[in-house]
Specification:
The complex is a heterodimer of chains A (254) and B (281). Chain A is 35% helix and 26% strand. Chain A has 254 residues and is of the alpha/beta class. The two termini of chain B are 42 Å apart. Chain B has twelve helices and no strands. Chain B is mainly α and 281 residues long. The chains are: A alpha/beta (254), B mainly alpha (281). The interface between A and B is medium-sized, with 34 and 26 residues.
């Protein structure tokens, strides 16, 4: 499948955990300002693939990455690339929310601060704006100085999303971001994704097929470290071409 | 079913006994010090330096040793913290997991951890001889610093290793550098850092062997880093070796002072770490 305007292009990517080849010859074009989801059974490599997109494997000695990941045409694994600048372009939402050990306010202000924003009024404004973007403002506006750890899990996950947005990324990476959440919080996150895709490219790892169907435009089926099939979501889930994909979406494969 | 109940009851009793042994010995030690030391406790003991013939029953107190011990424990805790923090930050936030350098460092401090304090005292003494220094406050601080660094690194390393990888990933994804990430991690483990400082302080204030040759002893309060310095444990040792009973009683009173000192520090540290931990994830 060809993508008109790819934002990220993964080309012939191989990843090894020691001797174990965890990702095999992955090539995929991730479209700009759309939601692309990676589905597949546990341990298939979908999270591993997601983490290669912002070089989160860098500090693992046993991991070796081969191939290219082009972000706006520039290879992020090339020599001399500024890793922090690349990561700044991508917000990450992990399986469980991990607020920073500081107040609600400081969690949002952290990103802008480390990138040089110290103006009090500007920070106030940013905090309000991003908390509103994730529909958290009304719930926390009276206790911005309270520790972020006091929020409910669902609120924490939205806070983490706002924290990621505050560094003005182009891409949001979600690693099963609703797996620890209750149905109501899950729904809120999904609604946010649908709004956010107007401004951001979203890559979502999920094992919930209905979620992939609800929020994503494109869907890639990952199995045993390979991309078996990549297609518009409806097509992949309802009319898959590959035998393995068929078995998986019908629930015979896990 | 019945056998299980007996098993449950048996081990429960064992656990209760163990708890009593621990709590009981705490009260036994404190009780002994209080009973034997309280009668000899006086305002003079904590506000005056020893006058001539103190260890033979003379007038005066152990203020020199109280101040000396405080200087040495505080100085060495601070110095050890300045050396330990960069080490733990480096092996946790900079080196990859299971790197050989990290493993070597951890093995190194584990070995140092087990070395008796007299060895640090002897090493410090040799070092001072080589540098042409005399027994002094600085010498004591250096020897005790060497002694407490492994304790500090080990305690801090253990708490930092419990930080989930996701917290690192969270700050990395915001475009934070490793140093900026390290600061967030330190905030997360602030209570653990407090514990490390407290353990080091407690060890530093109570150790005799490392300061015996390096800090020396003096009846005066040190006014510079080059002055020989008295310490409470050594003062207690000297008083206990006295043939006079009232001097030996003062040893228990001095031990009481030392215990109260450590108690205050540990309560303070607990209060502080409570404040620090309010933001913990």
């Amino acid at each position: 499948m060809t993508i008109e305007t790819p934002h990220i292009r993964v080309q012939n990517l191989n990843l090894y955990y020691g001797a174990n080849r965890a990702l095999k010859n992955i090539s995929i074009d991730i479209p700009d300002k759309k939601v692309t989801s990676f589905i597949g059974p546990s341990g298939c490599g979908k999270t591993t693939l997601l983490k290669t997109l912002n070089r989160l494997h860098d500090s693992s000695l046993e991991v070796k990455v081969e191939g290219k990941v082009l972000l706006d045409g520039e290879d992020i694994y090339a020599k001399g690339v500024d890793v922090t600048a690349i990561r700044k372009k991508m917000g990450l939402l992990s399986q469980r929310p991990f607020p920073l050990p500081m107040s609600i306010y400081d969690n949002i202000a952290y990103g802008p601060r480390i990138h040089g924003e110290n103006d009090r009024h500007k920070l106030d404004h940013l905090v309000e704006q991003y908390l509103k973007d994730v529909a958290l403002w009304d719930e926390v506006k009276d206790r911005l100085k309270a520790p972020a750890s006091r929020l409910s899990i669902g609120q924490q996950q939205r806070l983490c999303l706002a924290r990621g947005l505050a560094v003005e990324p182009e891409i949001i990476l979600g690693d099963e971001p609703t797996s620890a959440l209750d149905p109501v919080s899950t729904q809120k996150i999904e609604e946010l994704f649908l709004q956010l895709k107007e401004k951001y490219t979203i890559v979502l790892v999920t094992h919930i097929l209905r979620q992939a169907r609800r929020v994503s435009d494109y869907c890639a089926f990952v199995y045993m470290g390979e991309i078996i099939e990549f297609a518009p979501t409806e097509q992949l889930l309802l009319d898959p071409k590959e035998k393995l994909t068929k078995e998986y979406v019908r629930g015979f494969l896990s | 079913m019945k056998a299980k109940n007996i098993e449950e009851g048996f081990f429960k009793i064992l656990m209760i006994i163990s708890a009593f042994v621990v709590v009981g010995s705490f009260f036994l030690i404190v009780g002994t010090i209080v009973v034997k030391g309280a009668p000899a406790m006086s305002w003079d003991l904590i506000t005056k330096v020893p006058s001539g013939g103190f260890f033979l029953g003379g007038e005066g107190g152990v203020l020199n040793a109280i101040i000396g011990s405080f200087y040495i424990a505080a100085g060495s805790s601070l110095l050890a913290l300045l050396i330990s923090l960069p080490v733990v930050i480096y092996i946790n936030a900079y080196l990859p997991k299971r790197s050989w350098l990290g493993n070597l460092t951890r093995m190194g401090y584990d070995v140092l951890f087990g070395i008796p304090s007299i060895v640090y005292g002897a090493f410090g003494f040799t070092l001072m001889m080589y540098l042409g220094m005399r027994a002094s406050l600085l010498g004591g601080i250096i020897a005790v610093t060497l002694l407490v660094i492994p304790i500090m690194i080990r305690t801090m390393d253990e708490v930092i290793r419990t930080v989930p990888n996701e917290l690192y990933e969270a700050t990395f994804s915001l475009g934070a550098t490793r140093l900026e990430t390290a600061w967030v991690i330190l905030r997360q483990v602030a209570p653990g850092i407090m514990t490390a400082i407290l353990l080091a302080f407690g060890r530093g204030i109570g150790d005799v062997a490392s300061v015996m040759f390096t800090a020396g002893f003096s009846d005066n309060i040190p006014t510079s880093l080059n002055d020989p310095t008295a310490t409470l444990p050594l003062a207690i040792f000297n008083q206990l070796s006295s043939p006079y009973e009232d001097v030996r009683a003062k040893a228990y009173a001095s031990a009481l002072i030392l215990t109260i000192f450590v108690l205050i520090i540990s309560v303070l540290a607990r209060l502080l770490s409570k404040r620090f931990s309010k933001n913990k994830v």
